[in-house]
């Protein structure tokens, strides 16, 4: 992934509205972005379109996702 894509995603994550989610997502991007595959980046973008409370609920809740790339991203997010 290129640096411009990282910066765009990071900017979107900083401006969400829930501080807890902002911090979790920016930490995740800082630690994991360079390790993500292209399908995982696309899955992260899709997850980032969720409403704040829904996204945070996925991260802290036990719900699993059927899409393998989204599930992989969610598992990595939960470790942050």
UniProtKB/TrEMBL annotation:
Acyltransferase is among the record's keywords: no
Localization, UniProt: Cytoplasm
InterPro entries: SDH (IPR005631), SDH_sf (IPR036714), SdhE_FAD_assembly_factor (IPR050531)
Pfam families in the record: Sdh5
Membrane-crossing segments per the record: none
Organism superkingdom: Bacteria
Keywords (A to Z) from UniProt: Chaperone, Cytoplasm
Principal location class: cytoplasm
PANTHER family, per database record: FAD ASSEMBLY FACTOR SDHE
Family the UniProt entry places it in: Belongs to the SdhE FAD assembly factor family.
Protein name per its UniProtKB record: FAD assembly factor SdhE
Organism from which the protein derives: Azospira oryzae
